[in-house]
Amino acid sequence: MVRRVFYSFHYEPDSWRAGQVRGMGVIEGNAPVSDNDWEAVTRGGDAAIQEWIEEQMSGKSCVVVLIGTNTASRKWVKYEIRKAWHEGKGVLGVYVHNLKDSNGNQAAKGANPFDAVPREGTNMMLSSVVEAYDPPFTISKYVYNYIKENLADWVERAIARRAAL
C-alpha cells in the first residue's frame, strides 16, 4: 500500500532539506509549495494558513515532522502535530539537521517538537508515544541514505502505533 504523508517543517531554513526527503520517492507526500505561493497563503492570515493545512493534510495517513534547528518552536508545526494527532493520523519526527542545505551547510540539532505538545487527555507530552528518529551519522550522504532506507518502515510504525492508542 502506498502511503501518503504530510511533511511538516520550518519552511525558511529547512525547505531544501525537506525537498531532499520528498525527492527520495519512498513515500508520496504533499507537493512542495513555492516561495510565492507560501507568501500568498500567509498574507491571508491564520485562517488561510489553517485552510491550506487542512487541504494539504486531507487524505494523508501520517505526518512526518522534519526536525531542524528551530522546528520545535514553530507555531504552525505545533498546530500540524496537534491536528494530525487529534485526527488519528500517524505522527513521527526525523531529524534533518545533518542533511546539507542549498549552500552545503549542516545545522545544529534542534529540540524534539513532541516535547512541547501535550497528549490530549493526559499530563504527558506526545514525545512519550511519538518517535523522533535521529540518523546516527554526521555525513550528509549517509544521513540521506539512512532516511531513505528507513522512512517507509517508520511511517508504517507510526500509523500502527497511533491506531493502537
From TrEMBL:
Entry superkingdom: Bacteria
InterPro entries named in the record: ThsB__TIR-like_domain, ThsB_TIR-like_sf
The organism of origin for this protein: candidate division WOR-3 bacterium
Pfam family, one: ThsB_TIR
Name of the protein in question: Thoeris protein ThsB TIR-like domain-containing protein
Domain (Thoeris protein ThsB TIR-like) ranges: 6-100
